[in-house]
Amino acid sequence: MTTTEQQIDKKLIPILEQVSDPEIPVLSIMEMGVVRSAIIENNIVKVEITPTYSGCPAMGVIGDDIQKALLDAGYQSKIDLILTPAWTTDWITPKGRKALEEYGIAAPLDPIADKEALLDEKRIVKCTNCGSQNTKLVSQFGSTACKALFKCDDCQEPFDYFKCLK
Amino acid sequence: MKENLYKYILGIADNSLILGQRLGELCGHGPSLEIDIACTNISLDLFGQSRSYYQYAAKLKGNETTEDDVALLRTEREYVNLLLVEQPNRNFAHTMARQFLFDVYHILLLQELEKSHDLTLAAIAKKSIKEVSYHLRFSSDWVKRLGNGTDVSHDKMQNAIDALWTYTDELFHQTDADKAMIAEGVGVDVTKFKDSYEQKVAHILTEATLKVPENKWFQKGGKQGIHTEHLGYLLSDLQYMQRTYPNMEW
Fold first, then answer.
1. What is the pLDDT of residues A31-52, one digit of tens each?
2. Structurally, what CATH architecture does the domain formed by B3-244 represent?
3. Which of A62, A148, B161, B236 is the most exposed place for a label (fewest CB within 10 A)?
4. ipTM (interface pTM)
5. 10 Å Cβ neighbour count for A5?
């Protein structure tokens, strides 16, 4: 129950990598760490996915997209939603973090980075537009459940920060 | 069916559903865009959590019961949420005070539920804690900001805390089903963290230059299905789609 190891059949990786998060299209669900296991049993692919946030409205779509991608590759599949172990931002891969930054979403840093920004203690979240660390938190809740809204005091641009969840 | 477990799950799930619906009412009506988005984000988290509980409850009930049946097709007397969470939004201070008084409790509850012998409940709790810590940070920041703000904002926050205080004792009431579940190591004995709750609330209120209310007369009934007049209106809104278009799905 406590293992964080993903059990994923190597054959399935290229197929699953084609499926992206509908709300962050640059990120595949593999880079996101949402797929916890994918194995072939009696010609049926069993996939376990875990939500980033309980109310994440993208999970239904992600499940459908996985089934479609697998069907296109000739596999029938069964999708299960699991809650343990709970998803953490540590599961976002280095490649995924890079994709986030390039898309304009600052990657998660530290569980209290946004709190410190709010209280003006420490500014460590880098602006995705100009790279400045002179940024401040506008709101802990952003355009989706997983993001907070920041603003850069140098270039004045607003940007999203992927909240750290540990 | 495990009757006591079913009832116990509803006792937790209904709080998330009803508070989620109250916050959802602010969609498009928040005092500023950021707060509007924050309240609906918190609402979404709570709905997500309640879905996990209702899916579990529906499975226990069997007979092809769905999560929608459990969440949306009960009558008012069958909802067992706390009176606190059904209180209307009134003004922004009320909304944040209600949220704060619940969030402090919610985290303490989940921290214990995480250790439950029931692995499904423990998993939901573990997942939810991460979300609820954001909720608590948001609501306690606003209690402090309004309390330390202008005379007007201070008075509004004090009035809100005073008005809602009467619903806080019920957080620590336990039904027979609750007690049965505690005995089995599944449920949480909420009386154990009552002191801790009071200390945490008092600490933030003091930081916010607000007074801890002294009134000792408390309302109860939500856990037995006896609600304030506000719940019926909320439910007529919440259940409208399922009642009008039975079995509809998105």
1. 999 999 999 999 999 999 999 8
2. Up-down Bundle (1.20)
3. B236
4. 0.81
5. 7
